[in-house]
Specification:
By secondary structure, this protein is α+β, with helices and mostly antiparallel strands. The chain is globular, with a radius of gyration of 32 Å. The relative contact order is 0.08. The chain is built from twelve helices and 48 strands. Strands 27-26-25-24-23-32-30-29-28 form a nine-stranded parallel beta sheet. It has a six-stranded antiparallel beta sheet with strand order 3-2-6-11-8-9. Strands 1, 4, 7, 10 and 12 form a five-stranded antiparallel beta sheet that branches. Strand 8 and strand 9 form a beta hairpin.
Amino acid sequence: MVRIIGIVGFLLFAAFACKQSEIQEMDLSGEWNYQLDKSEIGENEKWFNAEFTEKITLPGALRDYGIGDEPDLDTDWTGSIYDSSWYFNPAMEKYRQKGNIKFPFWLTPDKHYKGMAWFQRDLVIPENWQNQELVLHLERPHWQSKVWFDSLEIGSDNSLSVPHRFVIPSEWVTSGLHRLTIRIDNAIREIDPGINSHSISDHTQGNWNGIVGEMKLLPRADVHFEKVKVSPQLANNTIKIEVQLNKALSEAKLDFEIEGKNHDHKLPRISKTWEDGKTTLSFTLPMGDDYKAWSEFAPNVYELALTLKGSSGIADFQKVPFGMREFSINDKHFEINGTPVFLRGTTECSVFPLTGYPPTDKEEWARIFEVCKSFGLNHMRFHSYCPPEAAFSAADEAGIYLQVEGPSWAKYSTSLGYGAPIDAYLMKETQRILDTYGNHPSFVMMAYGNEPSGRYVGYLENWVDHFKRYDSRFVYTGASTGRSWAIIENSDFIVRSPPRGLEWKDRQPGSLFDYRHKTENQQRPYVTFEMGQWCAFPNFNEIDKYTGALKAKNFELFREDLADHHMADLADEFLMASGKLQASCYKQEIEATLRTPNLAGFQLLSLNDFSGQGSALVGVLDAFWDEKGYLSASEFKSFCSEVVPLIRIEKYTFETNETLNAAIEIANFSGRVLENSNIEWKLTNDTGQLLKEGIFEAVSIPQGSCNEAGMLEIPLNFIEKASKLTLSVVLGDYQNSWNVWVYPTLDQNNDTNSILIAEQIGPEVKEALEQGQNVLLLAAGKVENGKDVVQYYVPAFWNTSWFRMRPPHTTGIFIQHEHAVFDDFPTDYYSDLQWWELANRQQVMNLENFPADFRPLVQPIDTWFLNRRLAMLFEARVGKGKLMVCSADLSTGLDQRPVARQLKQSIQSYMNSERFNPSEIIDYSIIEELFEKKEREGWKSYVNENP
């Protein structure tokens, strides 16, 4: 009875709507019935004839409505896990219990379902649609779809990149009530794109089941547009329009109307006669001398309206966006309309923590691109997936250059070149991407996908050749890869990883270096692949933002484990201190890229955090594209923008008898020559007091990098004590700054008679403490409890879980900078560049046996997967004495290590003063245990595979 009443109501509503006007299309969003098909029996049992009783609202995913199974230890995830320690580590036992499952690998869905699900609704076909072909348009199903109209099987599709469109034959289309049934399957079947592909992986999207975006049904004319391709031709102020019909139409005309979509330029209507018997024709239309070009500097978008008219009236109508732009290659650089372009990009991996799937609304993409531009970026790469239409439309209007990829990372569960179904699928999928989104001016670059395996070289060479011929509006590269992959030699450009990183394991920080010798000597544009990947500590304040179907159980686990290690109160400090180091590394790496003359750009991985692969917190923004608190957009833009002042300087730490020499350069990718430019510089102290300043003779700055502007030579003998200074270079509205540190050349006289300075634990130290003496224990190289923790100056890369505890293990250092021990040693709460001398390859101490509330003065921040309580400097009362312990090297080569020398000086001054009064009482045996050689349980991976 309920169903009968529902149908009658629907019929009455539809009849009323038809009387109001002829329906042009039917919106299918709203309430649907559904049924899960876990046993995969639905097709054999002809579920398209059955009635489903469960309700769901589409567009949406099953998990959005709590449909599926609770994740557990047996959940069939889609994605690699290289660190299996979570499954075996006793400390993780509580997170493996039903009702408290907390995975560290990625965001956890409230419910998980992989397999077939059926969706069904009844609809009323209006009279004016009768006996016409109907098109069912599903913008983004995930991902294999099959459709029935009543009992007629209409067809299937499996695109991960473009809308699924099904044609219902005209002979089945009658007015009145019909049933539409759609089966969606998100399990990997014949086509395997790769389990870590961001088009399907649980690492980011989560392998969801459902349909999002537009869902509509509309009639299709007997003769209609199959494809419209717009190719701008700036050299002669025209556009070439290629139009393909499904079949020939005689005595037809084609009207063209062109007007600005976000500007007011409009052209008169132009009519052309369609040649009888032709299904494909090309037309060249003038744009006039006053057309508006598209670029990052002026993202002017046009809309082309085409009306096809036959003898009986309008046959079809379509609107197409385009831009007057030519994205081309000039030697080793890209150009937009003949103007040099330097790509400042981020990699988007389908990280959308509220839904998992990418948004299909233009407003959200516009927000994301606005954030990117506020951070100085002009480019986005989509890693192993293609975004929806809304992303292209928003990028068009924002002036963002897009590199799109096929939906495949063919490495882990699949490979290329062996004739498997994935080979043909990716050829078809690429063509569908080009045909569907290729008119958007923001779409300029194309790759098959990410880091393939197999016989990929020959396959990708063919892929590149084929699509260069198929559509010349884009530049192509075979794949985006790391350094160990072969270069696809017929690629238009290269996206590869060698030109990146900071070589500070053995060399102190400076800015003389660049990457000109790391571009494989390629005579084509070379773009740095996945640059950065510097970790920061988790922001636990972010947890409450996960209000959708995906929850940050990984963050909850990390937070609770931090508390288990007695450091819950330090979470915010760890975030800020690690974030400041992360920001400094990004600044140094981006500036080195801008100093490189033969690079065409970079792609970060990424500006925002990556939720999967062990939780890769590599963004200066969180997964929601929000700032974390330690770096603002304006600060980032000072070193990442269309114009950036740069310096080449040997080092950042000096002595007072040295001269600060700095070569000033300007990277100018503003789209114009900067005429008659004044370049100013100033040197200030840590209170902002101006110490020195100057201005260079006005010059014109051409477009490009490595534009020399002048040389600074600043003798530092006017500095009287250890100081932090800031050097700033200003060019109009563009300013960039660098911290430098200056230390006295010689030690100040220090009376150490009252201090026992020892370099190893032993009877002498114990006796001195028992007698009430002050002891400075310089423990570098002697630590046993903590020597398994590898510390470099730079933070962990990507994360220690995904790379199975590959060093370094730490993410920076938190410093009690206001403590009196640093009165003669200028420092902030984080490890700025001067700390390289003290932190790089230096030992740390594991304070696991110390009292729970014990806090060191200098605390390395451990990987959040282990949260060991670490120290490089601490003080304590031991026996009747007072003890200071330092695991950084403060003994060797101090004549060449002014930073270490100054810290030692500051420690000794403090220990000689009445301020040396540690509050914590520690038993000598606990100190001794730090240096005891014995078996200690270390980290275990439990797997042998590597990513």
